[in-house]
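Quick one before lunch.
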Amino acid sequence: MKNTLILMLALFTNLLLAQKMQLNLIPQPAEIQEFAGSFALTRTATIGYVGADAKPVAEMLAEKLNVPTGYTLVAKPARNANLLLSVNTTPNAKLGEEGYTLEASTNGVIISANEVAGLFYGVQTLLQLLPKEIESAKATSVNWNIPAVHITDYPRFGWRGLMLDVSRHFFTKEEVKKYIDDMVRYKYNTFHWHLTDDNGWRIEIKSLPKLTEVGAWRVERHGHFGDRDDVRPDEKSTVGGYYTQDDIREIVKYAAERHVTIVPEIDVPGHSMAALAAYPELSCTDQKVFVDPGTNFADWYDNGTFKMKVENTLNPSDEKVYEFLDKVFTEVAQLFPNPYIHVGGDECYKGYWKEDPGCQALMKQLGTHHVEDLQGYFMGRLEKILATKGKKLLGWDEILEGGLSPGATVMSWRGVKGGIEAAQMGHEVVMTPTTFAYLDYTQGDPTVDPPIYARLRCQKSYSFEPVPDGVDAKYILGGQGNLWTEQVPDQRYAYYMTYPRAWALSEVYWSQKKDKNWDSFSKRMEAHFQRSDVAGKNYSKAVYDPIVTAEKEAGELVLVMASEIPDLDLYYTIDDIMPDNFSPKYSAPVTLPEGPITVRVQAYRNGAPIGHLITLKRQELEERVGW
Ligand code: ACM
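Model of the acetamide complex:
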């Protein structure tokens, strides 16, 4: 009897410990203390809030809980409740404006914060403490247990963003709201809305109606973006869309209710083909241009420079352009409360400016022989226009070329170099380097995931450190991930490209540097895969695919493999046969014999295959030397 009791006690303790192991929070909170036991949420649970400001968050929590539980919980003003949200009357200095404390015990959960934003983030954490079925869109029967924990949490950076390019692919108003809904679960607070580009102008400007009448629509094309057929002059433009100003106001409000601020981007003077399709007189050529459906409109060179075969820039020497910009930014400034307006500035081809008499005269007037200085002049004019609307200029790091206007904030994308330079000059910086934060890049093996521009694995995104050595952290506002959509034709694929890398980046921008740990993150990431499965949301499983590269040693080809997830076994063959878990298991680089080798690799976990089979011929491996 005594032995049985001891055994039961041991089992019970193990159960409790096992329960403690199951916290799968992303991003990782600053401080967590775990306790034995849990609170069981039932249909009799009460939800209370202290302070009228907390009401919308408490109501949002009730709504979120009621769908999967099938309960009819109602949030009420109360000092006592099973789930209590409370704004601190005496601020807790540690928490700042977005931090919170969450105290879960067997009696319930208390979330406290200095500001409502903190309560909102505390609620996101609470939802992640519940079983994965909380993501279900229909009532589900499980034990809704919340483990006993004490959490104190606050962000490392104030700017935690995702950028969505709605020009290359138009996302509807509802799709944009959904994207915002999901980013806030990971405590992102900034939505960078890339509203204009060569492939579509997406924001209604009432004083310039052709921007959307013409600029929002393009001809129908399918297939690889950048290789599509040119527009034929008699073709109808049927693909696209735009947001009316009412739509924009609705989305801005929706975002604000979720503690997200929207940074609109109007990308000028380059990337303006859609605007020029509507108002061709704004360029310095007489070329007729179309809203581009993804044609091969530029020649790219190995050093990263390019030549536009079609003009897509506004003419910096024409006063009409500044009148146009004044109209655009007057309306944009009225729609978006954010102090910043992003004016692009990236990838501006200046070949047509060089040839243009008006631009040449302007260069003479400015006393310069460098056509790049015209971009500096353009940005200076733009900064003054924005200042008259009470807005600050934010631009991609090319705005450093040709002289940075005094109050400009720089978004560093071509690596962190631009960010370092700007910070050293005392400018504020948002970090979003291609090498860590470009969500359009291929995340798995390019024989499986469609190759685009470059490769970026989730683990690499996770390893990002936004404050470079030697830079004063006070200039680094934070960072973001960018989803460009040349190769993203629908919402599901937007999710596939965004997640899990945006989970990794959420931890980069929210969590404390000392708490970052890939092995811990990757386990939690897999729990969020399961949550996404319940929700029916797409994400990439490329982390399960082997990383296959090669080296050359004394003229011989050497196979080098790795995996992002720690507990995978890689089995491979070289003789054109399918591998299984009785094939050779990879443990160290393998010198490959001569001959028409084809390497096939399959990852296994606990004896079961996982991820994609990777197949590479010798020539393809040769091309991977030096990856
Ligand atoms: C950019 O990716 N062109 C900013």
